[in-house]
């Protein structure tokens, strides 16, 4: 438990359980797509392009190996998703000591709420739009490729959870905003 606490930080006192669940779930929705993407980058025949991995390079620079690109993209995706945990953790309210110039200062509420809210909206709209064309990809040559059978099923299982990333982030963001802007109760 101490390893989890060290990595994620302490949950702020008074955070509703549903907000904690939403924040952690938001950070986990990205993992299946990251695993699918990394497997594809290493040449697993699970995607729309079953030939050579280099056939699907698209705009990836020639100097970067596909497996490196997919790992980099996956780590970046998970790091962004992990920021949802900050909405229920101490490091989302007070800058950690490793942040130069800001360490120990209170995180301005809107500095967390605005990017998280915009992110939740963009993610929700983007994944809903993506869901409309789940089986269709644009090939590097500009043509259209369709997924079918087990490849489509695996892709949906891997990318389907992303549909929940935006709404879960929105729930955690609203809880954060309400908790941080709530007026303190008068002492009696």
From TrEMBL:
Superkingdom field: Bacteria
Protein's name according to its UniProt entry: DUF3995 domain-containing protein
Originating organism: Actinomadura soli
Regions that span the bilayer: 21-46, 66-88, 109-132, 152-178
Keywords assigned by UniProt, alphabetized: Membrane, Transmembrane, Transmembrane helix
